[in-house]
Amino acid sequence: MRNEAGGSGLETGGSGLNTGDSNLEAPKTAMVGDRTERELIARIRARLPPAPPWMLVGVGDDAAVIEPARNRAEVLSVDALVEGVHFDRAFTAPEAIGHRALAVNLSDLAAMGAAPRLALLSFALPSSLPLDDFDRIVSGIAAVAAHHDVHVAGGNLTRSPGPLVIDVTVAGSVKPRQALTRGGARANDEIYVSGAIGAAAAGLQMLGGAVSSVSSVVKSDSCINRYLYPQPRVRLGLLLSRNRAASACMDLSDGLADAVRQVAEASDVGAIIDAAALPIDAGARCWFDAHGDDAIDAAIAGGDDYELLFAVRPRLRNRLKAARASGIAMTRIGVFTADRALLVRRPGGDTPLPQGYSHFR
Amino acid sequence: MRNEAGGSGLETGGSGLNTGDSNLEAPKTAMVGDRTERELIARIRARLPPAPPWMLVGVGDDAAVIEPARNRAEVLSVDALVEGVHFDRAFTAPEAIGHRALAVNLSDLAAMGAAPRLALLSFALPSSLPLDDFDRIVSGIAAVAAHHDVHVAGGNLTRSPGPLVIDVTVAGSVKPRQALTRGGARANDEIYVSGAIGAAAAGLQMLGGAVSSVSSVVKSDSCINRYLYPQPRVRLGLLLSRNRAASACMDLSDGLADAVRQVAEASDVGAIIDAAALPIDAGARCWFDAHGDDAIDAAIAGGDDYELLFAVRPRLRNRLKAARASGIAMTRIGVFTADRALLVRRPGGDTPLPQGYSHFR
């Protein structure tokens, strides 16, 4: 079990790659159930770059051994993707599944203002998963890892008698006093959100819904792409934490409403969201309008955007300039309040903030 | 998703406990599907001790923030338990499932000679899992955590449309040059194993097999207990690493044969195991004998023992004295060799080392 791939964990360079390559010529119908655990691990290693010097022991031993980043606190998070809950293999390419598995975790590090360093991958694999799909999932993970300079330090492979499950643990680093928590907002802090919202929720509907004449007209590749390939706001998170521009931060994995509620509760404040200010993705707005849905409600409640929600003290607003280097839009969408109510301000009056997505009830 | 439990991660003390307790009076038929994610997280927190000072941000934020141990490398490992693969709820008490989920991970840290510090818990839960079972699984984890001074720093809860999956990531620390890898054995190093072997494999057969007149006579509570509640050799691993008594180390999660093979391959050596020297559990030997199985073969191939296999240079043998403080027996069972063959020496002659358990083929 676990990190076994034969060979010492320190030897992840050229020889490891060769071991992997010798296994790549598999017939197209091959499934993971036809391969040993060691062969599957070799296929993963074949898709990874050499280990960095701070990885003292990497893939291939009972555990990974890591040199901590100097003068930094460590930031750790875990998140799982479960087939049938978080993705549907019928309309999600294997690369997109792999991309998402790592990206959603990096989004958590981004929300803490942490620089990502490494990931541990734990797969529960149905025996009938095509080997080619497995390779493509790993390639999707490897591409996100390479983009964000994250190194796979180890993991675990096991069979699943049910759905495909990918559990990813990520570790990053942050200066201890610069970590962005959910609990730092105060009354009168302004509420910002990065990028645009609603696109991923619309994209998911576009992928999964029944085809209609309306749907085919207003489908947006951009929304579908936003759903399939979420982009964690790692650089923005780093910039917001370095000069303490943000007093609190969280990612929108479960939607804007959920994030506003969580930050407000953790900070003992209320919030008023200005509906007119919300940066709703144009393609998503078109989609929701065409289907008779309220675009504001849909964009507030919809999940999977992986943007950042953050609080900014009014007198520190000029610190946000530094964060513009991320190239990501930042929109002021409301204010935290001493009154604990959570409201959406609309032309017709204030309405309660809707509930976010709940996994169990 | 993830660490959400409302409230700042720093506030894990009394108030967190009260929040949890208010949810404990559930009807007996309640299932996890009847509860929100937040309620389930509150139930976990209610079973955990207060966070230690080095946990700067714990459960309840996007990620945990940890102060690294001074002058130590960090050791990370992940392992998953999948219902139907690693346990059967029909004959495994929920506490035992929780115990195992953390214990098998701590065994990996033990094999590296690392001191455990923290764990991240990721659950994929069937909606129909009784809430009481969930609580008992968490209690099983909490008991092992308390015993080894491991703190839960965060985690993730999600639904599973299939089996129960528990993914645990553990982090520990070790002095960089004291980490015990698989690759450090040399020819003529003596091979040792801790404790006794075969008990867990026999225990699993006792639990899962058909009842027969033979079986009922030779069943052993001790073997069943060894299977259900594996004891990670954390203290022994620490003692073996501190004075470098061991030149290589690995745990027996997948059996003795697998461990010998992995260490030999990682160290570029062969091995001869002396069958007569193997510390086979007496109850297991009785069970295998009664069923006409070769006790040596069964004990070598059987998994789940979570003992440590380690190599000792002959001239450093006296360093093992320090490790006796662990109270765990250490038995010399063979020798690593320059010849790459992997052999079991028996009265009738040498036979090839059997294959260990393979998860996919």
Structural description of this entry:
2 copies of one chain form a homodimer. By secondary structure, the first copy, chain A, is α+β, with helices and mostly antiparallel strands. The first copy, chain A, folds into 2 domains: 14-178, 60s Ribosomal Protein L30, Chain: A (2-Layer Sandwich), CATH 3.30.1330; 190-352, Phosphoribosyl-aminoimidazole Synthetase, Chain A, domain 2, CATH 3.90.650. In chain A, 33% of the residues lie in helices and 23% in strands. Chain A has 12 helices and 13 strands. The first copy, chain A, has a 7-stranded mixed sheet, with helices on both faces. In chain A, strands 3-6-4-5 form a 4-stranded mixed sheet. In chain A, β12 and β13 form a beta hairpin. In chain A, α1 (14-21) crosses α2. Chain A is globular. Residues 1-22 of chain A have low confidence and may be disordered. At the A-B interface, α2, β2, β3, α3 and β4 of A face α2, β2, β3, α3 and β4 of B.
Summarize the SSE layout with pairings.
Two copies of one chain form a homodimer.
Chain A: H1 14-21, H2 37-46, E1 55-57, E2 64-66, E3 73-82, H3 94-112, E4 115-125, H4 131-147, E5 151-159, E6 165-174, E7 190-194, H5 199-208, H6 213-218, H7 221-228, H8 234-242, E8 248-251, H9 256-267, E9 270-274, H10 282-290, H11 295-301, E10 308-312, H12 320-323, E11 330-337, E12 342-346, E13 349-352
Radius of gyration of chain A: 22 Å
For this structure, the quaternary state is: homodimer
What portion of residues of chain A belong to β-strands?
Answer: 15-25%
CATH superfamily of the largest domain in chain A: PurM-like, N-terminal domain
Mean pLDDT reading of chain A: 89
Low-confidence stretches of chain A: 1-22
Q: If interface size is counted as residues with C-beta under 8 Å from the partner's C-beta, which chains form the largest one?
A: A-B, 92 and 92 residues
Broad shape of chain A = globular
Q: Indicate how many domains the architecture of chain A comprises.
A: 2
Q: Provide the succession of SSEs of chain A.
A: HHEEEHEHEEEHHHHEHEHHEHEEE
Number of helices, counting only DSSP H or I runs of 4 residues or more of chain A: 12
Q: Label the CATH architecture of the largest domain in chain A.
A: 2-Layer Sandwich
Strand order of the largest sheet of chain A: 8-10-7-11-9-12-13
Percent of residues in helices of chain A comes to 25-40%
- Could you say which structural class the secondary elements and strand pairing of chain A correspond to? alpha+beta
Give the biggest beta sheet of chain A.
7 strands, mixed
Distance between the termini of chain A: 34 Å
